[in-house]
């Protein structure tokens, strides 16, 4: 696959990625290279990655605990200390080898260590490949509030090694696929239709490439999310609140990001049918397609109340109002839509019926 | 005094500052305005500031504990939570009303809350006016290591109200004056000579203006400190280590930033006389001038060892080597100078003799 170039960095694929990385390391001559992993990528991905790495710089491995519940400022403090103690300086490099938690958190730690060192993302999950590692959003959660603390700062490069996906279980793959379905819903009915026909065990390279291109083109036009970039939040306004709510209930209830976003997309598709002109046929198509792939989650009345009270904290809100991205139809979206409160309960009812 | 314009923001003085601020608030219509203070600026400066503030936006006051020992990530966590709980969103504004601790920490909190909100610095100490609040360096300490965590991000405006200096004690004024003396040493012998003749009780407006201009011109040419901006670190390589060391010994031993930097400037002036051609006459002038204003601090052998072992952590170091800014003569400096270790003890001996 060809590389995707952006203004400030490039995204490389598979064998070309290792070549580009080694060339970059040879040119930059970093004082030290830190590789951030979690226990899973330490075991499954790091040996493969190290075997292709060619550098004369010292390499240090830093391991964090896996999982969204560890995407916290407290984990950052541990890693900042580790970087200091291991002699990290302003000419050090951080390589984030992992899923979205590792790339989000590692990107933030690197962007703030000694006021910013270079970092490279090597996403190992489908979600991180098509979403988290692209676009420069870094950050951590504050309590249950997702991504409350972070910066927008681009990596030096992103390296997509599709073979790492073989380390993922089906639920993780499915979570990442939700973001790809979203790319179809917000920009291209043709892509949505292709993805509907795709099974998770099918070869994914082409679709991963297409999703990254879609996201990248949106981000390039509006890196700081003033306008266009907001469309990437389709399904996320309610989806984030759902994810936070179940995170709050404890780890055994927690949904994966894509699982929460899938619910959010059904709910927000319903809102779209009421407010932005999406037809009933397409609404049914979205619900049917998503429920086929993402098992319906039982929501108690208390759950719904908890989710709605978290909405107000979503970082896309301003002036105390909740802004939504809605669909005009599949493949065409509209930002900054305000939703009357009574529709939320209707949307939940539609999801459940 | 005329305003100083930079590429991305402006620095306003005295009455013009309030006018510019109110105009800005009227234009931007922030969803909420948070004013960060410490207990001192809450009592001494906030009432004056609020009496000139004209806005329809909600205003919330957030108070942190004063002092360098509170410039920590832990304090940031408290303020990020406060911002969330008080309904802060991406269209909120943060005004940092205080000395260098408040502007450094508040700038970092704002730059990272929901991936960055606008902030305005209103420095109330001489140090913050001529140094900390200008140039976009934000950050906090990590343990005793100064400014290990932070970002470079410019404020929307800086408002310099010289009248706030009447709230400072002599020791605080003297601390800020050290940075002004540094501005003379690194760029202008004429300015150094003027400052030598100045007493702290003299009118300062003109000198504050000149120091801000000097710093601002340097930062504009090299905002990310790749080259030229490093000259602002004269006296700071050893000075930071000295400050950290005494901070580590406990609050009652702590030196103010400028007091530590004054020692650092004498030591690094000595290194300059050995390595970068500064004459003995000027070296003596620097030592004499600084010791007249900053009482000699007793350094035990243990202190010296502690200071030197902290040197390695200074964030200006790369590849494990310690880089210094040295003077060729008063008013002319040179960056990236490596210093043989044996000279450090000689420099201490010169300071003490």
Automatic annotation (TrEMBL), chains A, B:
GO biological processes: aromatic amino acid family biosynthetic process; chorismate biosynthetic process
PANTHER family, per database record: 3-DEHYDROQUINATE SYNTHASE
Domain 3-dehydroquinate synthase N-terminal: 62-174
Highest rank taxon of the organism: Bacteria
Sequence ranges assigned to domain 3-dehydroquinate synthase C-terminal in this UniProt record: 176-317
CDD domains xref list: DHQS
Record-linked InterPro entries: Dehydroquinate_synthase, DHQ_synth_AroB, DHQ_synth_fam, DHQS/DOIS_N, DHQS_C
Keywords from the named record: Cobalt, Lyase, Metal-binding, NAD, Nucleotide-binding, Zinc
Single GO term (MF): metal ion binding
NCBIfam families for the chain: aroB
EC nos: 4.2.3.4
GO CC annotations, alphabetized: cytoplasm
Listed Pfam families: DHQ_synthase, DHQS_C
Alphabetized Gene3D superfamilies for the sequence: 3.40.50.1970, Dehydroquinate synthase-like - alpha domain
SUPFAM superfamilies (alphabetical): Dehydroquinate synthase-like (SSF56796)
Role according to the record: Catalyzes the conversion of 3-deoxy-D-arabino-heptulosonate 7-phosphate (DAHP) to dehydroquinate (DHQ).
Keyword flag Transit peptide: no
Protein name in the entry: 3-dehydroquinate synthase
Cofactor requirements of the protein: NAD(+); Zn(2+); Co(2+)
């Amino acid at each position: 696959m060809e590389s995707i170039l952006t203004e400030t960095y490039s995204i490389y694929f598979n064998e070309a990625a290792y070549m580009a990385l080694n060339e970059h390391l040879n040119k930059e001559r970093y004082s030290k290279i830190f590789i951030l992993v979690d226990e899973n990528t330490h075991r499954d991905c790091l040996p493969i990655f190290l075997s292709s790495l060619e550098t004369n710089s010292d390499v240090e491995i830093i391991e964090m605990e896996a999982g969204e519940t560890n995407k916290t400022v407290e984990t950052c403090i541990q890693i900042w200390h580790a970087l200091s103690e291991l002699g990290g300086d302003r000419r050090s490099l951080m390589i984030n080898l992992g899923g979205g938690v590792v790339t989000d958190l590692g990107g933030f730690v690197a962007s703030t260590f000694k006021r910013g060192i270079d970092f490279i993302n090597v996403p190992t999950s489908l979600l991180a490949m098509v979403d988290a590692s692209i676009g420069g959003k870094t950050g951590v959660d504050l309590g249950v509030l997702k991504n409350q603390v972070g910066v927008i700062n681009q990596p030096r490069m992103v390296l997509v090694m599709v073979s790492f996906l073989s380390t993922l279980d089906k639920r993780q793959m499915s979570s990442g696929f939700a973001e790809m379905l979203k790319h179809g819903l917000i920009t291209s009915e043709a892509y949505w239709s292709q993805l509907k026909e795709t099974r998770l065990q099918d070869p994914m390279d082409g679709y991963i490439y297409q999703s990254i291109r879609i996201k990248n083109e949106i981000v390039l036009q509006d890196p700081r999310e003033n306008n266009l970039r907001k469309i990437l939040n389709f399904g996320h306004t309610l989806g984030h609140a759902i994810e936070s709510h179940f995170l709050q209930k404890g780890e055994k209830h927690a949904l994966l990001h894509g699982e929460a976003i899938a619910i959010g997309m059904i709910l927000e598709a319903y809102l779209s049918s009421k407010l932005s002109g999406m037809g009933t046929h397409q609404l049914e198509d979205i619900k049917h397609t998503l429920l086929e792939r993402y098992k319906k989650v039982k929501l108690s009345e208390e759950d719904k109340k908890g989710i709605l009270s978290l909405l107000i904290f979503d970082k896309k809100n301003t002036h105390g109002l909740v802004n939504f991205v809605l669909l005009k139809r599949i493949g065409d979206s509209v930002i900054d839509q305000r939703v009357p409160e009574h529709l939320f309960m209707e949307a939940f009812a539609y999801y459940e019926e």
